[in-house]
Design brief:
CATH class of one domain: Alpha Beta
Largest sheet: 7 strands, antiparallel
Protein name: UBP16 hydrolase
Strand content: 25-35%
Radius of gyration: 22 Å
Number of helices: 4
Distance between the termini: 27 Å
Pfam families: UCH
Shape: globular
Number of strands: 13
InterPro entries: Papain-like_cys_pep_sf, Peptidase_C19, Peptidase_C19_UCH, USP, USP_CS
CATH superfamily of one domain: Cysteine proteinases
GO molecular function: cysteine-type deubiquitinase activity
Structural class: alpha+beta
Keywords: Hydrolase
Order of helices and strands: HEEHEEEEEEEEHEEHE
CATH topology of one domain: Cathepsin B, Chain A
CATH architecture of one domain: Alpha-Beta Complex
């Protein structure tokens, strides 16, 4: 999608991301890096249709010898529509020569996360004036083992029916103003074995997939 927004506001976010100062090895740091502002230069220059037309004239006057114009540009990936369910997939592998190696270090993640610093200032389904987009954790998938073999387990929060979430999913409406984690009991599931666990146990897991439901 080509944006013709004012360059001064094109990269604005709902909340000031520069005040975030994310901690290393945290989900906030991952999101900060994923949504950082990038400069496209040299071999990464952007093909600019407007610049090309200015250089060569209207398309109907351009013959086969048309020369495309590439220009320096800025790129940033931001959330333009806050989802009812936020799914974060961590890349848990890295290249080691010609092989892939699993990344086993712990990535910190919170029970409630604010997505506002990673949302565009014109986020479509956030009420004007809101500077928070809060989500509550309700599921984690963890992988143990290596790149060649292993075992998947899950942590799931059993909680009451969330009418607010249903409104978001089925009607796209947001009216509730919850800001605290959804209450419920956490369980660890490994094949057919299920046992209750504490939230501290969940937050210390080596997450591979994180599932959050929208609060605000």
């Amino acid at each position: 999608e080509v944006s013709l927004d004012d360059p001064e506001t094109a990269f604005s976010t709902l909340a000031n991301r520069e005040e975030l100062n994310p901690e290393e090895d945290s989900i906030h740091h991952c999101l900060y890096q994923f949504t950082r502002n990038e400069t496209l230069t040299e071999t990464n220059k952007l093909l600019c249709d407007v610049c090309t037309q200015r250089h060569c004239g209207p398309k109907n006057n351009v013959k086969s010898e048309k020369k495309y114009v590439y220009t320096n540009a800025k790129k940033q990936m931001l959330v333009s529509l806050a989802p009812p369910i936020l799914t974060l997939h961590l890349k848990r592998f890295q290249h080691a020569g010609f092989n892939l190696q699993k990344v086993n270090r712990h990535i910190k993640f919170p029970e409630v996360i604010d997505l506002a610093p990673f949302c565009t200032a014109k986020c479509k389904n956030v009420a004007e004036g809101n500077t928070k987009v809060l989500y509550s954790l309700y599921g984690v998938v963890e992988h143990s083992g290596t790149m060649r073999s292993g075992h998947y387990t899950a942590y799931v929060k059993m909680r009451a029916m969330n009418n607010h979430l249903s409104d978001l999913v089925f009607r796209g409406q947001s009216q509730a103003l919850e800001t605290e984690p959804v209450k419920g009991q956490w369980f660890h599931i490994s094949d057919t074995h299920v046992q209750p666990v504490s939230v501290s146990k969940v937050l210390s897991s080596q997450a591979y997939l994180l599932f959050y439901e929208r609060l605000l």
